TrEMBL record:
The active site is at residue 129. It holds the Pfam family MoaC. Its EC number is 4.6.1.17. This is Cyclic pyranopterin monophosphate synthase. It is an enzyme of class 4 (lyase). Homohexamer; trimer of dimers. NCBIfam families: moaC (TIGR00581), PRK09364.1 (NF006870). It comes from Devosia aurantiaca.
């Protein structure tokens, strides 16, 4: 195995990184995103008053489903057998939006950061889609990796 994993081969062409010689370890990643909205829109989400149905439950399912399809969405991303994916969605304390936290886990040779980020982003997009009839001004913001563990590169924890 090369000491330097890269998506570019010796000829400068894009390639999927060869992780075949990497050890299988328990890997976990947490990502977050925020959907900013009017307080009345947040209440409509929380109280399940949207004409399209239970947006929070639908967004959770959409995020989980999307995480399982990450390698179909992100070029050169490895397909992974995920062992667990959760998507939690809660209103911000000031009711200015919804906070999404997605967690992806696997026992594998490569990390699950992209799966967690995909889950959070698709959950946010689903909330936007289901709420846009009442609040077209919603904004999806702060999509980012919060933490990751497992693997050769070590752990990561975003500073608060």
């Amino acid at each position: 195995m090369s000491d330097r994993l890269t998506h570019v081969d010796a000829q400068g062409r894009a390639q999927m990184v060869d992780v075949g010689d990497k050890a299988v370890t328990r890997r976990r990643a947490v990502a977050e995103a925020t959907v900013l909205a009017l307080p009345t829109t947040v209440e409509a989400f929380v109280e399940d008053r949207l004409k399209k149905g239970d947006a929070i439950a639908t967004a959770r399912i959409a995020g989980i489903m999307a995480s399982k399809r990450t390698s179909d969405l992100i070029p050169l991303c490895h397909p992974l057998a995920l062992t667990k994916v959760t998507v939690d969605i809660d209103p911000l304390s000031d009711r200015s939006g919804l906070h999404i936290v997605a967690t992806a886990e696997t026992n594998g040779q490569t990390g699950v950061e992209m799966e967690a980020l995909t889950a959070a982003s698709v959950a946010a997009l689903t909330l936007y889609d289901m709420g846009k009839a009442v609040d077209r001004g919603m904004t999806i913001t702060d999509l980012r990796l919060v933490a990751k563990s497992g693997g050769k590169s070590g752990d990561f924890m975003r500073a608060p």
